[in-house]
Description:
Blueprint: H1 4-8, H2 11-27, H3 38-55, H4 65-68, H5 73-97, H6 109-112, H7 123-128, H8 145-167, H9 178-181, H10 192-219, H11 228-235, H12 241-267, H13 278-285, E1 365-367, E2 374-376, H14 382-393, E3 396-397, E4 409-410, H15 413-424, E5 425-429, E6 436-438, H16 441-451, H17 462-467, E7 469-471, H18 493-508, E8 514-515, E9 526-527, H19 542-545, H20 551-557, H21 577-590, H22 605-616, E10 630-633, H23 638-645, H24 662-676, E11 678-679, E12 687-688, H25 693-697, H26 700-706, H27 718-727, H28 733-742, H29 748-753, E13 764-765, E14 773-774, H30 783-786, H31 791-803, E15 809-811, E16 816-822, E17 829-837, E18 844-851, E19 856-858, E20 869-875, H32 880-896, H33 900-904, E21 911-917, E22 922-930, E23 934-935, H34 936-942, H35 952-971, E24 985-988, E25 997-1000, E26 1009-1012, E27 1019-1022, H36 1055-1074, H37 1076-1087, E28 1089-1090, E29 1096-1097, E30 1101-1105, E31 1111-1115, H38 1117-1127, H39 1134-1147, H40 1158-1174, H41 1177-1180, H42 1183-1187
Helix pairs in contact: 2-3, 2-5, 2-13, 3-8, 5-8, 10-11, 10-12, 21-22, 26-27, 28-31, 32-35, 35-40, 36-37, 36-39, 38-39, 39-40
Amino acid sequence: xxxxxQKSLELYPIGVRVFEAFEELLRLSNDPPLSRHRDLLVDxxxxxxxxxxxxxxxxxxHMSLDYRVRDVTFIKERxxxxxxxxxxxxxxxxxxxxxxxxxxxxxxxxxxxADEDGTDEYESxxxxxxxxxxxxxSYPSSFHEVDFRFDGLTENLxxxxxxxxxxxxxxxxxxxxVNQLYKHIPDISAGSRAEYIAERENFETTLVAxxxxxxxxxxxxxxxxxxxxxxxxxxxxxxYWLIQRAGIANARRKQQFIYWKEHxxxxxxxxxxxxxxxxxxxxxGAVNNVKTSITHDALAPNAATGQAAPASVQSVPTSATNxxxxxxxxxxxxxxxxxxxxxxxxxxxxxxPPPPTHIRRIGGYFTCPCCEVLCPERYLRKDAWRVHLxxxxxxxxxxxxxxxxxxxxYGTREDWVNHENQHARVWHCHEHKEELEFETQAEYVEHxxxxxxxxxxxxxxxELVATAVGPSLKECRxxxxxxxxxxxxxxxxxxxxKHIMFHLERLALLALxxxxxxxxxxxxxxxxxxxxxxxxxxxxxxxxxxxxxxxLDKTQHRGDVVSKVNLGQLPSVELDIGLWLSKAEDILxxxxxxxxxxxxxxxxxxEEVNEMAVSMTQSVRTGLDDPRRVRQIRDRGEGDFLRxxxxxxxxxxxxxxxxxxxxxxxxxxxxxxxxxxxxCALDPNKDYLPRCKxxxxxxxxxxxxxxxxxxxxxxxxxxxxxxxxxxxxxxCLKLLAILIGIGxxxxxxxxxxxxxxxxxxxxxxxxxxxxxxYCQYHKKHHSAINEYPRPNVRAEFSRWSxxxxxxxxxxxxxxxxxxxxxxxxxxxxxxxxKMYEQPIPGFSELFKVKIDSTxxxxxxxxxxxxxxxxxxxxxxxxDREDFNLELSTLLFCMDNAHSSEVNMHLIQPLASFEVLDxxxxxxxxxxxxxxxxxxxxxxWKINANLIGDMRHSLWMSQQLHGICSALQxxxxxxxxTSQSTAIELYGRHxxxxxxxxxxxxxxxxxEDLIVLSDFGLGRLRTxxxxxxxxxxxxxxTSTYLAPEFDLADSTISRATDIFSxxxxxxxxxxxxxxxxxxxxxxxxxxxTEMDIYGFxxxxxxxxxxxxxxxxxxxxxxxxxxxxxxxxxxxxxxRYLYELLEIIRDKMLExxxxxxxxxxxxxxxxxxxxxxxxxxxxxxxxxxxxEEE
Length: 1188
């Protein structure tokens, strides 16, 4: 709290008077004796203006300099003294120029300092010094007061700048909270600010992941190129916790730079305009002498002008308002110093951006373009600039997953290392030959009590216990960022820390703002931190993986920005993703944070960036590349299973061992494990243990009995050991089961001491000659397990490790689950039958499977089969893009469904899998669906009793409407809006036929459903690209082809699906009125004729010459006649008649441009359905009956 004396010591009014005096002097600067000092006066006025701007001298409340230094009395008094000195020098110069005062060198000293009553206050002093030679001449002949006053201005301003470097030292600023950083984003609606924050963090996470992916690929040895997908999936995906942490840190760093920029602008507001300032002259007229010392009275409101310090104005505290006394006593380089440059494993030094060379400097100081802080000119040296940027960026954060403060940033390497060492600190017991380490103090004290009970009681004191704390002596952990530094310097923690610093600094450099270092404007501003190190990290292959730039979604979060962009024909050129990023971020930085940006005011550069985005890829990020829609699961669903199985927080403190003999008990457990295993139906060479079985077989009581064996003698607290094995943070229950299964249970203590636990599972056998086991979790070979001399023992260990960790599959409509598995993983499938391979080579195989009920749970997705069967589709293609296209289309269609009813008519993927076979260097992809009763053809065959049953027409109208709605979702057809852009995705099914319309009889539904499925030929594309493919290059089902496929110069589009669906609908009506034989034989036989390729084909259209060298499609006359016959059938109702009209005139329209689209078709089918539901006679009564 400020004392009353401190409150009266206000800097603001002194600063106002200094500004007024400066402006008065500038007005008089052409008059002698100031004319020769004019340039110096202008420079010093600019220096003072910059100083005041930087520190908020003219601000009120929490942003003011007065508030900042309120708790540091000696600093505030020094500032007041220096400002008062400036005021004195300036006002004295004004008085001399106006002739109201005489320069000291032109007047007698005694007259100058005489009091008003005529007495000489220096008389005694002059008398005492009368004998001194200097008394004959008080000032040297060269003394000039004007020069003296200007020297005083420069000297006092230098002192002010030195203090400013202390007050606004970057190291003295506390770390801003998230709310502080994003407070400028209005929380207009519930969660809007949170959405903005999540959006920025998603973007930065994606950028970090792409950068890290490039780093890993470049670091791979050519012989290990096949591991690129595996390693990038492990270390460089947006779902990896460390990449997410780095992305969140960069988002906050960027926001911190924005905050500093805005704060600097606020500090500079309300600066005085240059105008004649008469109050100074008026004030000087009432002053007869000038005091040379500072008093509190001099800082009070001026009596002559009556101008008082303005009242305090309420303001919001900022993150830099409070200055601590201790903070101004250390230099910005006190801890950082000349820290060694970090480098990667290959010796590559991290290149920091060079100091700006064309920055404006005033009096040996400049404003940092990054943090907006007033910095001394020496900071522009290369090493000092790097240190300053490190303090600005705070590039270090914790790299341990279980940190309690994971998002804290550190601006010095010393602070970061101290924090990291807290995770590695342990308590050592030095009384053992092989020094024991304990992760917690409680464990260490418990060890002293149980293992060394005869020790002196003083050893439990806080002082002696603290002496046991130190860094772990075990081999240092592997690098969490990359796989290349695990064994480079084993045990050398310092080297590992420097390597991790390389990653942290490299990724943090992505957050540096643009620095405009070219005042002539000839070149673009350089992005600090990317020059030479980041920009070149992106290659052609990266462009497809970095397409979800938040810029494309930003418009929706900033008021539905209207974009009227005429893209036209895009040039086919190679694009630089670094340049694209810079351009896009430039636009983002210039957009307001709230409100609506009208189209005419939208930045002109948007068109260029939009074109670049479309050119780099023809689809925005979807499928596996969208972490918001797809959850990539690498723990085989272990986390989901633990959450589903319930909490184990309430555990008994003691366990009663069974009276059984340990060896006999182990034999019984081994037999139970063998009998409980289930052979995988898809691979008879693999088996799995259902998840429900292990806790039944290995109960805590049995584990307590096992640990009573002498091999566990090192563990005195058996109950605690039991809890740790069964329920600890690093449980070993599965590890114990494996050792029981291979007959090595008594090796468990040795394996646990080597760091092995259930977290290490599964473990793979390497393909090398030694057949060693490699731990993916610790990124190393555990000596304890590889000491087994026989390779078949290690192979059995690996096989058991996979058997005990079969995936737990969880499906959800909100976020798709994609499981990343290895070749050794076992699908928990107890029944499986290979149904068929698609006739088109290279597409897929289908299996009818039953998944173990303890290994799956599906929340609100799909249509459960009554007998619990699922369809597992294995793609023949090993190309990730092929799989991602199919998955993206499925998810895209699900997301477009506007109601749950429509969603039921779309096939829904329950989960997907990728299985990496490191030996073959290939990935196999799977999709999991609900099992259907059959397809539409099966429905027709099985339900012959429904032929001619007029009551069936109501259900038919509902299913046809549902199918059209589903196709509308695929096509993404909706009412045109002003927000539609060329970037929006569109789908096309590509192979509509009865076999791809599935028939479900779900257990949870009272009625059957017809569902649109199999998007294997479908693709997602943008409006620019959806109609630019050669029809002849795609696999086709000829019967239901649209005319576009046979036209020489035609391209396919969504309209082909409408024609194919019209063919299927016509066959449905044929079946209903005439039976299955009419569908399979009569109707195809009538329309079969020679096509343009010389083959007999039962297509619904024909192609003729238009007489001008072109081709014209027509609906076959046989089809027209068939429809007419159906309309005149005795059982044709009004519903069927109008349905056939729509099929003939709108769906089977030969011309693509005139064919109805999915939105219009859905509306037509809805009208027919509503007519059936409102009026029974519309579908129950035949037209002939109505006429009669």
